[in-house]
Design a protein that fits this description.
about 290 residues; alpha/beta; Rossmann fold; Hypothetical Protein Tm841, Chain: A,domain 3; 2 domains; six-stranded mixed beta sheet; four-stranded parallel beta sheet; 11 helices; globular
Length: about 290
């Protein structure tokens, strides 16, 4: 057992049982929907089915990042116990939570100068963040020390690819993330935007596909081109989806046919905080590959 603790945020979008089994304490984001505030507690307060049903009905949830006091409350008890801590945050490209964690780090480091406390900007989101955590936890369990694990994560986090397509533009239009005219034209032409997360951890539009079938084919081609080993990729692949499980399963079938040596595939739900911004109809694919490009 390591002499340090690894923590992360609820926005890593893996099942709660996963984090419990692997002994990972979480910092929880929050969201407000229909004038009530909920904890982003991995589907416990509100099931993912109910959450996306409300969005389909027109609800527009608003998210709240983890603040300095909440990060302090998460981390300080372990420092008091004499343990070091490595915390990995949601990408700074889509949330200010990393900044809050860094403030908490500075305060706690001054209070506990004998302890090691690392805060890493994952540059990741959803189950891509989760896939990064999975590897970090494997290395922890294999006996890697906290300094070496911090250095490995900083060196390798840009190899975690995020590629996703959106087939339902209504929520993006309602939230002002695409214009009404663009959403109307995109819907009429059955356009699926394909995006990734760039080296700065920000969402980046890359191309467009006509229909989900073409979006799946294009995403598969991208994976073949960018995954470690190409068609011989033998690592893990995670997906997350927002109320469109059949689309995620279709992408899995396409990926498995193209890359038959995949070690493991997991499909997760896009959580309530990330889903507050994507709405329904988003399928995201995550894998290890070459370093991201702008």
């Amino acid at each position: 057992m390591s002499d340090y603790v690894v923590t992360c945020c609820s926005t890593a979008d893996l099942p709660k049982e996963y984090f419990e089994k692997r002994n990972v304490p979480l910092a929880y984001f929050k969201y407000t929907m229909d004038n009530k505030t909920y904890v982003d507690d991995l589907g416990e307060s509100m099931s993912f089915d109910e959450f996306y049903k409300r969005i389909e009905g027109g609800a527009m949830p608003v998210t709240t990042q983890v603040n300095v006091a909440e990060y302090t409350a998460l981390i300080e008890p372990f420092l008091k116990q004499g343990k070091d801590v490595l915390h990995i945050t949601l990408s700074s490209g889509i949330s200010g939570s990393y900044g809050s964690a860094k403030i908490a780090q500075a305060d706690l480091q001054a209070k506990y100068p004998e302890r090691k406390l690392f805060v890493i900007d994952s540059m990741c989101a959803s189950s891509g963040y989760g896939l990064l955590m999975d590897k970090v936890l494997d290395l922890r369990d294999e006996g890697m020390g906290i300094q070496e694990l911090n250095d490995w994560t900083e060196e390798n986090k840009q190899r975690l690819h995020h590629w996703f397509f959106v087939s339902d533009l209504k929520h993006l239009r309602r939230g002002g993330r695409v214009s009404g005219a663009s959403a109307l034209v995109g819907t009429l032409l059955n356009i699926c935007p394909i995006m990734d997360v760039d080296p700065e951890g920000r969402l980046h539009p890359r191309t467009k596909a006509r229909g989900k079938k073409n979006a799946i084919e294009e995403t598969t081609k991208i994976a073949l081109a960018r995954a470690e080993g190409g068609k011989d990729y033998s690592g893990k692949i995670y997906l997350s989806q927002s109320a469109c499980l059949e689309d995620a399963e279709a992408l899995v079938a396409s990926i498995r046919a193209a890359m038959p040596n995949i070690k493991e595939v997991k499909i997760n739900s896009i959580g309530t905080v990330i889903g507050s911004h994507t709405g329904i109809g988003t399928v995201a694919l995550f894998f290890w590959g070459d370093k991201r490009t702008a």
